């Protein structure tokens, strides 16, 4: 490993020190910067060690970024526990062509140690096990009509929020127009792709609505469902076929199945709106639902030109939607609005500057980004979004 350039994206200070000590003659870095490109990459899925949150919410996105810059490094992915979130991380790695022996999983009470990762990494480097991008992908289980596999059922492990029996019930079209009378009560937070901070803003918006004295509910339809990590990681109880928790920042509702069930969603949104709640939907990507027919969409993009072009290819921003440019570098704030305008035909209604430290502090506490310690820039932006939606009461402040 001598002389290797290693990107260690694990968000774990103890592991970072261990690897730096193991490879003293290697260039070990924690993030990409400038023209530096790694020979080897280690990424880890988010988990908890004691009371400390470690790992990344979307570890494979780091690999995508590295490969997008022209590098083809050896990659080791710590997918972690064989629950649906771990299965999703492993599947993303497989679709990038990362060899199975470079994807590390564990079951039951097993752990993945730094030494174990080092052995896999060194073996992969010795064998030069680089990703081999796929040119053709066979049909998925859902497309063939078979039940989707849910990992962990045979071992009796509990199913995390957002996953259940994998059935496709509710796939038939529904009449969303029955929700039109509640349009002002339902907000759908949408994005052209993952990784732009959609779930962060959805949870923060729900928390802001609650903080200004209104009843709010967050319905997490994304896959995998990750909003619970922004809402205190609460214990979820079954209620009317959904997983439910009351939190200090509003109610949290998560479907039991990983597949989007239109009929159940229609019923839940109507029920919550009739109860007088402001409903925030963390909307799944890639569905054909016309959210603007019955909700106020908040379309989230970021400071990446590719995301803007994906948004344009998907039809742009609905006329009644709020366009939020999230995670915009401070140095680009003054010019990014014009870039968005050129690509999407309208400038963003809200621009939220990047605030890695503030958002990371909220993630470690597993609370919304508007809760202290959190992000002042996200709090300000969410307050602006709420005001534009017609239910806000000015800019949000960090709740202390």
What does this molecule look like?
- The strands form 3 sheets. The chain has a 9-stranded mixed β-sheet, sandwiched between helices. A 5-stranded parallel β-sheet has the order 2-1-3-6-7, sandwiched between helices.
- Helix 6 (198-211) packs across helix 11 and helix 8 packs parallel to helix 9.
- Residues 139-171 and 392-400 have low confidence and may be disordered.
- The chain is an alpha/beta fold and 400 residues long.
- The chain contains 11 helices and 16 strands.
- It folds into 2 domains: 5-127, Rossmann fold, CATH 3.40.50; 176-389, 3-Layer(aba) Sandwich (Rossmann fold).
- It has helices spanning 13-22, 59-68, 84-95, 114-127, 141-144, 198-211, 262-274, 305-313, 333-344, 356-365, 376-389, and strands spanning 5-9, 27-29, 40-44, 47-49, 52-54, 74-81, 103-106, 186-190, 216-220, 237-239, 242-247, 250-255, 278-282, 296-301, 322-328, 350-353.
Supply database-style keywords:
single chain; 400 residues; alpha/beta; Rossmann fold; nine-stranded mixed β-sheet; 16 strands; 30% helix
What Rg is obtained from the alpha carbons, in whole angstroms? 21 Å
Question: Number of DSSP helices?
Answer: 11
- Could you name the CATH homologous superfamily of the largest domain? P-loop containing nucleotide triphosphate hydrolases
Order of helices and strands: EHEEEEHEHEHHEHEEEEHEEHEHEHH
Tell me, what is the CATH class of the largest domain? Answer: Alpha Beta
Q: Major β-sheet, in short?
A: 9 strands, mixed
Which whole number gives the mean pLDDT?
84
When the domains are counted, the total is 2
What is the CATH T-level topology of the largest domain? Answer: Rossmann fold
The count of β-strands is: 16
Shape: globular
The second-level CATH architecture of the largest domain is 3-Layer(aba) Sandwich
Q: Report low-confidence residues grouped into runs of 5 or more.
A: 139-171, 392-400
β-sheet strand percentage: 15-25%
- Find the structural class using helix and strand composition: alpha/beta
Percent helix: 25-40%
Q: Give the strand order, joined by hyphens, for the main sheet.
A: 10-11-12-9-13-8-14-15-16
* N-end to C-end Cα span: 47 Å
